[in-house]
Amino acid sequence: MVIKMWLNGKLIEDVIDADTLLLDFVRKHGCYSVKRGCETANCGLCTVLLDEKPVLSCSVLAARAAERRVETLEGVREEAEEFGGFLADQGAEQCGFCSPGFIINVLAMSKELEDPSEDEIKAYLSGNLCRCTGYMGQLRAIKSYLDQKKAVVS
Amino acid sequence: MIRVKNYVRAASLEEAYQLNQKRTNVVLGGMLWLKMGKRSVQTVIDLSGLGLDQIEEDEEKFTIGAMCSLRELEVNHSLNSCYDGVIKESLQHIVGVQFRNCATIGGSIFGRFGFSDILTCLLTLDTYVELYQGGLVSLHDFIKLPRDNDILVRIIIRKDRRSAVYQSFRRTRTDFPILASAASFTEDKLYLSFGARPMKAEVLEINRSDLADINTEEDFKNFARDTAKKFKYGSNMRGSAEYREHLAAVSIYRALKALEEVSYGN
Amino acid sequence: MNSVNSGIRKKDAMALVTGQPVYTDDIAPPECLVVKVVRSPYAHALIEEIDQTAALKVPGIVCILTYEDVPDQRYTTAGQTYPEFSPYDRLILDQRMRFIGDAAAIIAGESEKAVDRAMKLLKIAYRVLEPILDLRQAKDSEIVIHPEDNWRALVEVGGDPKRNLVASSKDAMGDVDAVLAACDFTVERTYRTKANQQAMMETFRTYTYLDAFGRLNVVSSTQVPFHVRRILSNGLGIPKSRIRVIKPRMGGGFGAKQTAVSEPYPAIVTLKTGRPAKIVYTREESQIASSPRHEMEVKVRVGADKQGVIRAIDMYALSNAGAFGDHGPTTVGLTGHKTIPLYARAEAFRFSYDVVYTNHMAAGAYRGYGATQGVFALESAVNELADKLGMDPAAIRELNMLRSGDVMPAYYGETLNSCALDKCMATAKKMMDWDEKFPARDMGNGKVRGVGVAMNMQGSGISHVDTAAISIKVNDDGFYSLMTGAADMGTGCDTTLAQIAADCLGCDVDNIIVHGVDTDTSPYDTGSYASSTAYVTGMAVVKTCESLIERIRKEGAGALDCGYEETDFDGSRVSCLKEQKSITLKNLANQAMCGNETALFATESHSSPISPPPFMVGMAEVEVDMETGQIELIDYVGVVDCGTPINPNLCKVQAEGGLAQGIGMALYEDIVYSEKGKNYSNSFMQYKIPTRLDVGNIRVELESSYEESGPFGAKSIGEVVISTPPPAIAAAIYNATQIWIRELPITGEKVFLGMKENE
Predict the structure, then answer these.
(1) Is the predicted pLDDT of residue B263 greater than 90, yes or no?
(2) Angle at C682 (CA atoms; ends C679, C686), nearest 5 degrees
(3) pLDDT for C94-114, tens place per residue?
(4) Is the peptide bond before C30 cis (omega within 30 degrees of 0)?
(5) Could you tell me if C719 and C625 lie in one domain?
(6) Which pLDDT does position B262 carry in this prediction?
(7) Are C598 and C630 members of one domain?
(8) Which residue from A92, A27, B239 is spatially nearest to C649, judged by alpha carbons?
(9) Residue C167 backbone phi and psi in degrees, to 5
(10) Coil, strand or helix: which one is C716?
(11) Residues 128-187 of B with CB under 8 A from A
C-alpha cells in the first residue's frame, strides 16, 4: 500500500507493507537516529514524536501514522544540540545508543510539564532505559537544561 | 512478530464489525501486546478514524472512547479528581509515557489481561463497556465473558460518591504487578478487586453492614486474612501463590484503613 | 596537567547526541544478505537430519549452511590473548546441540521476510539427549557434554571434558584448616549468583564483505578486534592475513562483546557466497544465546580472633561455564584473587575451584569478570562474621584492609604501591552518615531502614599479558593523529587517550585526532577488557609521545642547525637553548613534507608486570516494608580510588553506571529456566534491568591515590565499580530485618519468607 507522511517537516510518499513498523519506515528514510533495542516495547530507544506526542515507533504501524506528522532527532537538530550539550558536559551520553530516544522524550517532557520536580522528571522518562550511566548524569543534565531555560524566560 | 497482509482504517463501526467477524482478522488497539505474538493476520482493523479518542463528561457519567490512550486517562483531571486519583495510580507505573501514549483503553479492557492494572481498578468503580453488538454490559459481567468478535466501542464510568484506593506491588517500579489491588466504598458496599494473581482481576462485593463488627486491630487483620483467602492465586516468575495471598491480606487491611479515613466524613 | 584530570566532553559526544549514523547497522551496505541463525529447541540433542528442500525454494534465499558445511576444526570464540586459556571446543555449526538456543543452521537471504519464512520451513530432526541443567550435578556426571575427540586445551588449566570439567585448580598459603580451627569466631556459608546479562542497549551485530583484494572485511560491534581476527581465522580455516576487522561506534559492551558472538555467521556466509552479509541479533538472542556472567556457587569459610583480625579465608567456587569453555578458566581466578587479598592480615588462605560444563548457554565476560561473584560471597561472609563478633562491619574492614606498601600473597605476590582504601571508607562513612544510621532505624510507619557496607578491588590490565601499542604522527600544520587498537564502546577512551597525549605533547586535546580500530592499520591492542585501557594503553600513549618528541627534537635540531642535546620542545615549538632561535611545530611539520628523512611518526608498545588494583567502598541504605518484605533502595554511596582520574566526569559516570548494574544484579535481575532448560528471562519484559526509578540516589566520590606505574598516576575504573552493591544491599537488608539472603537477586518475597521462618 502507498502512504503519505510528514517526516521531519517533509511530506514523503512510499510503498509499505501492512505490517511495516514506523521504526523501520523512518530508518529506511534516513532517520538512523531511531534505534531498535528490544522486541517488547520496554526500552524506549525507538521513541519518536507522532503529532508531537512521544510514542514507541516499534509498536506503531507505519500505516497508522499515515497523514500524520512524525519527528525524529534529525528533525529537531537545534533543540537536540542544545540539550545534548548539557548531556555532553556531564559525559552522560556514553555509548549514545539510548540518547536519541531519550532526548526526544526529554524534549517532549519539557513541553508537556511545567517546572517538573525530580520525581516527575524520573517518572516521565521511566520508559527510557540506559545501561551505561546509572541515570544520574542524565538527571544532572536535565536539571541544568531546565534551569537554563527558566533563566532565559525570566 | 505479528505478520499482517492488509491494513484497513475502518470508515464506520459497521465496517469494522463486519471485518472482525473473520477469524483471521483482528482489531488494532494499541498494538503493544498484539505485536509480540507470532500470529499471521489477514486484515488488521484500525479504529483510529472513528472519533473514539474522546473522554466526555456529563453529570452522571464519564464516557471514554475505546481508542483513548492510557496516558489520556492518566492525565485527565476530572476523571481523576472524581475517583480519588485511582485511575492515575493504576496507570502511572506502566512502562513509560511513550508506552501509555500507544496503549488504548479499549485494547486493555477487551483483552481482559491477567496483568492488567486498569481492569483491576475499574472493577471497583461503577463501570460498563459498550459493545457494538452486545450493547451495554457491566464490567463485572464482561470479565466473565469469553473473547469474541464484537467490538468494544466505549467505556462508561458512572459517577457516585464512592471512595476508592489502588495499590500494587512490583519488583521494579514499572514491571507487571506481583499483585494489583483495588478497593472502593459506596454508601453500603465494599468492593475488593485483585488482579495479576497472576490471573485476571476478580471482584468481591461485601455489604458494609457486615463490617460493623470489625473494630479492633485484630478484627481488621483477621478480616483481611479471611477475605484474601476468598480469591485464588498462582505462582509464576514474579511471585508465589503464598506470597500473593499474603500481599492481598496486607492490602485489604491497608485499603480499609485508607477508605475509613477518606470516607469518615460520609 | 591541563587535560588530564579535567572533565572535558568526549570527542564523539555531539555526533552521538544528534543521532548521527555511526553504529554498525547504520553504516552497513543495504545490499547485505540478511543472516539469521536457526536455534536448537533442545538443551542437549544430536541433529539427525536437516531437510532444506522447502526452505531453499523460498524466493530470495541464497544459502543454508549446516554442520556439514563448516570446517571441522574446533576453536574458541572467547577474546583472550593467544594462547588462550579457553579450550578449543566449538565449531561454527556442530551436530551436537548443547543448549536451548545453540546454533543449528545458518540461513542467508535477500530480505528478512524471506529468511523468516525459510526458518519456518527448514526441517530439522533431533535425537533428544538428557541434559545437565544443574551446575552441582555436572562434575563426573554420566552425561558428557563434550565427548568429541578433537576437543583440545592449548594451556593446562585443569580441564577434563570427560568429567565435564573446563578448569580446576587450587592455590593456598599456610594451613587454612588449622588457623580456622584456632579462630575465636568463624562463619561458613554458601552464596549463589546468577548468569546475569550485560544487556547493553546495542545488541550483537556484524556485517562482512569481500574487498577489492578478496579479503574478508568484518565490521563489528566488538571489544576485541584483533582477537576476532584470530578467532575467525581459526573457525573459518583461513589465514589471518585474509581478514580485516573494523570497529565503528559501539552501543555498549560491558564484556559481552569480548566474545565473538555474532561474527562467525555473516563471515562464513560471505566466504561461501562472495556477497556482503549482515546479522543483527534480536534482544531475545542477546538474552538466550549470548555471553553472560558465570553462574556461581561460592562457599566461604572465614575466621577471626576476638579483636576482629581476620586470620584465615577458605573459598571454593563452583562456576557454570555452560555449553562452552570460553571465559570459564579465566573468570574464576578473579573470584578468589581479587577478593581474598583485601584482608591483608590473613595468615592463611586457600582458594580452590571447579568450572563445569552444563547445557546452558555458554557464559562469558561481564564487568568484574569473576571478581563480582567472589565479592558477593566474601564481603557477605565478612559482614556475617562482623555481626557474630558484634563489631561494626566498617570497623572490621578498617582493621583488616590493605594498605599502601603491603605485599599481597593472594594477588600473585604483587606489592601494593597505591591505595586510598582507608580514605574511601572514611569518606563513604561521612557521605552515608554511617555512624548515625548503622545498623538500622525504625521509621515508625511499619518500615525499617538498614545500611550495609562492602569493599572491593579489581585490577588494571592483566600483568605480563595485556599489551597495547600506540602510534602517533605529526601532520602538516602540526596536528596529531593518534592511532589505537583499544575499543571505545562508549566509555570514552578515544578521548581519554587523547587527554593523556595532549598533556605529554603539551598541546590542546582538540589538536589530536583519534583513529581506531582497523586491524589493518591500527597498532596492536589486546582490546578493551580487564580494565586495561587507561592503565596499559594509556602508558603506551606516554611512551609513544616520548619517542615522538625525540623525533620532533631531532628534526628541529636539523632545522635549527643545533645539537640535539641543546634542543627543547615545549609543545608548540622546538627551541635551541644555546642560541635564541626556535621553530614552531607547525612550520617544522610543514617543512617535513619536503626533502625529509625523519618521519615524525612514533609507535611504542607497553605491557605491565603488575596490575595495580583500584579500590572501592560501597554503602547502601534500604527501606523494608516489614509487613510485605518489599524493598526500596533509598541511597547508594560509592567512593573509588582509581588513581588519577584522567577525565573525572567520565570516571563518575562509569562509577554511577557500574553501581546501577550492581544494583540490578542485587535486587532485580533474575534468570529463570524451565525444567527442560529453556531460558524464560529472554526479553526486557522478563529480565528487569533497573529503570531510573529503581536505583535510588547514587552518589559517587573519588579518593585518588597516585600510581607511579600508571599514566599520570592513573590505575583503572572500568570494572571495580560494579561489585559492591550485592553484598552492601544484602547486609543493609539484614540489618533492617535480621534476614540474610545469600542467593541473588534479593526480592521482597525472599525477605517475607525469611521473616516468616523467623517467627
Answers:
(1) no
(2) 110
(3) 999 999 999 999 999 999 999
(4) no
(5) yes
(6) 63
(7) no
(8) A92
(9) -160, 155
(10) coil
(11) 173-174
For chain C, report the end-to-end CA distance as a whole number of angstroms: 61
* Amino acid (one-letter) located at C184: D
Same domain? C240 vs C275: yes
Portion 63-102 of A in contact with B at CB < 8 A: 63-64
End residue of a domain, out of C552, C574, C606: C606
Query: Which amino acid, one-letter code, is at A103?
Result: I
**Structure-block grid coordinates of residue C704:** 585518588
Tell me whether residue C144 is in a domain.
no
Taking each helix axis from N to C end, the angle separating C393-400 and C371-389, rounded to the nearest 10 degrees, works out to: 110
| Domain membership of residue C442 as a residue range | 417-458+611-759
Quote the distance between the C-alpha of residue C91 and its chain's center: 24
The answer on C206 and C108 residing in a single domain is yes
Burial letters for C511-547: b for 16+ Cβ neighbours within 10 Å, e otherwise? bbebebbbbeebbebbbbbbbbbbbbbbbbbbbbbee
> Domain limits of chain A?
2-74, 76-153
Write down the pLDDT at residue C759.
83
B42 in contact with A at a CB cutoff of 8 Å?
no
Can you give the pTM of this predicted structure?
0.98
Nine-digit cell string for B100: 501509555
Per-residue pLDDT band at B266 (split at 50, 70, 90): very low
- The CA-atom distances, in angstroms, between C145 and each of C66, C360, C674 are 20, 11, 19
Q: What's domain A2-74's superfamily in CATH?
A: Beta-grasp domain (3.10.20.30)
Host H or E run for residue A57: none
Residues C709 and C591 in one domain: no
Segment B165-187 shows an average pLDDT of 97
B99/A127 Cβ within 8 A: yes
Please report how many Cα atoms fall inside a 13 Å half-sphere around the Cα of residue C58, on the Cβ side. 24
User: A102, A97, A101: which is closest to A145 by C-alpha?
Assistant: A102
Mean pLDDT across chain B: 95
Structural domain ending residue among the three candidates C288, C316, C334: C288
Region B72-86: what's the mean pLDDT? 95
C-chain CB neighbours of B250 within 8 Å are: 627-628
Of A21-25, C67-71, C352-356, C558-562, minimum mean pLDDT range: C558-562
What is the 8-class DSSP label of residue C475?
P
Note whether C727 and C747 are same-domain residues: yes
Q: Is the pLDDT at B264 greater than 60, yes or no?
A: no
The per-residue pLDDT for range C117-165, each reduced to its tens digit, is: 999 999 999 999 999 999 999 999 999 999 999 999 999 999 999 999 9
Number of separate domains in chain C? 3
Peptide bond into C161 cis (omega under 30): no
Domains of chain B (ranges; CATH) run 3-46 (no CATH), 53-158 (3.30.465.10), 163-263 (3.30.390.50)
Q: Does C658 touch chain A (CB under 8 A)?
A: yes
CB contact residues (below 8 A), chain A span 31-50, against chain B: 39-42, 44, 47, 50
Measured between CB atoms, does A91 come within 8 Å of chain C? yes
Q: Is C601 found in the same domain as C671?
A: no
Predicted ipTM? 0.98
CATH architecture, domain defined by A76-153 = Orthogonal Bundle (1.10)
Residue C216 lies in a domain: yes
Average pLDDT score over residue span C596-610? 94
Q: Which residue has the cell 469518615?
A: B264
| CATH, residue C675 | 3.30.365.10
| Alpha-carbon distances, residue B18 vs B21, B105, B149, B150, C729 (angstroms) | 5, 22, 9, 9, 57
Q: How far is CA B108 from the centre of its chain?
A: 7
**B98, B104, B108: best mutation site toward chain A, by most A Cβ within 10 Å?**
B98
Residues C616 and C601 in one domain: no
pLDDT in tens, C32-63: 999 999 999 999 999 999 999 999 999 999 99
Is C647 within a domain?
A: yes
